[in-house]
């Protein structure tokens, strides 16, 4: 009843607002109204932001200005039909703006009052469900898998109720019998090596006959061979912290219709935008807005969906839909979509409990986002939420919001190129004067940015969304058209992780961004010339020129994004504070571990400096809580900083499979370390500071990009350059060769025996037997 009254109140308010904004008022009055509303919003934000009604008023005031702008654009700015070319371009631009208005309206509805769930700790007196942990894998490095498996095995949960499964799609029968002998040998070697890894870490290894239906098919194969009441899914590079199950499993006891508990994805390494613009330590990551605000908003309406990893799912619910859905290439959202439609519920726990890896290169980043974009469009086209039986109204809105969001590449590119139509061809795409632009457009832009900053300020800087949308839009627009033309055609591609970047260079995808930047720069010069020297040019050229200048700044910052910086550390580090002891040369030195990665750690002695003869030893970790362990890690000193800092960098020296348990305990023992890292980066940047930062990037990053272009530092030149092989790499190569040689011999012998048998069968007229 209360919900119905709330919707009725919002509907009545919107109707009254529409009637008000349709009244004929002078431009001066419109400007005064817009400025007054902006002042009112600033007052509400500054003095009353903690009050719920003030939050609603803030959104209502902002929505009024946005609707006023949309009404003005739709009724007063389109070129006349007597100018069909201008009308066509103007209408296209208006449609792009209406799309943005729609997305803003939906996001305001979904995120108006995000849900803050209280903790749901495990009750030790209640019977805990059995849990199967799925770690789907395809081509990840073994050290990544070892870390994730060890961390999953170390979770605080009764061992007799916890089973960890490595679901290996890189060692299937299909791959081990590949027609290419080298690929077949590599797949068989991988299978044998990972079987040994799982055996030594206490996990179960499982593969299958064929690589069918990608990740969904792999996990459905896991469902067939397991029987746990709850399924936990971790991507191969998503390692859980020790308290993961303790913080999440309790929700299933509270709600028997609950099918999903989703937690945030948090990453230890920067994405290419963060690394290349050097914002990793000071700016919130792009995905934080989704997980810390949008997922909480969706959760309020029972619309939080499965994100492919860091989640728990009820087996009984999955069985009602035949397991994980695999019609589209985003099996996660599709699965949640189907289960929500069957009346199951979901929960989002807003606490970082896993740490993962992001794509390192711009090309792999675009590949990942293309898959997300195509998958969401597949669901929209094949299983339209507006037509799906079983979903309530707000759930339809929530899913439509998540799916139509990925249409952003087309409007973003329209906004980038629209000013050039008037600058180059004198084709008016909207009809306005300077006074109207100030009264309507400028106040709309300010209010739009205030709304975004108010809702997402701690997790998204101003103008960052525009930059991310532009750099993705150049390539994702093609992905959209491919799905529209053939919705079932896209295939699942695994995102490459753990790559190394040895030198600064331009991404192999950089050339369109240089071309667009040059075009916008030329357009700016033409606009300046025409405004200053061409007779009869109106102030509309000034407006369009300023618009093009803004686009040029975004495009300039994007040149910095595609200018890949060298990655200093291949193994991302996490800041922690754990007590340990360093034993070497018969001595034991108490130390504090202040950061750790899969490759090494940084320590600081509790007292004084390390003795000069300690260059190699073992690091013994003090266990957390009531755990009893004598785990230790082999370490070797790599560098020591000045005596004032008293900091020593150690590298892990030849970790065995079983020693990954100690590494998991050290690195993933306390999730509070990850929360501190997130809190450190969540610094609010106001509209002025955010605009200034974007301006700096827009001016300075093109200089760096063009210097790389002039020096020929492209991705291809880096690949083609001769590379020196280190002694360590030579040792690894020899080890691999030693492992593969006998496998190659076995494979060749088996192939020869198979060929001989086939020849004998053909000669005798007996058909050749088939493998299962």
Automatic annotation (TrEMBL):
All residue ranges annotated as the PilZ domain in the record: 570-668
EC id: 2.4.1.12
Primary localization class, coarse: membrane
Entry's localization field: Cell inner membrane
Pathway named in the protein's UniProt entry: Glycan metabolism; bacterial cellulose biosynthesis
MF GO annotations: cellulose synthase (UDP-forming) activity; cyclic-di-GMP binding
Task of the protein: Catalytic subunit of cellulose synthase. It polymerizes uridine 5'-diphosphate glucose to cellulose.
Name of the featured protein: Cellulose synthase catalytic subunit [UDP-forming]
Organism in which the protein naturally occurs: Variibacter gotjawalensis
Gene name in the database record: bcsA
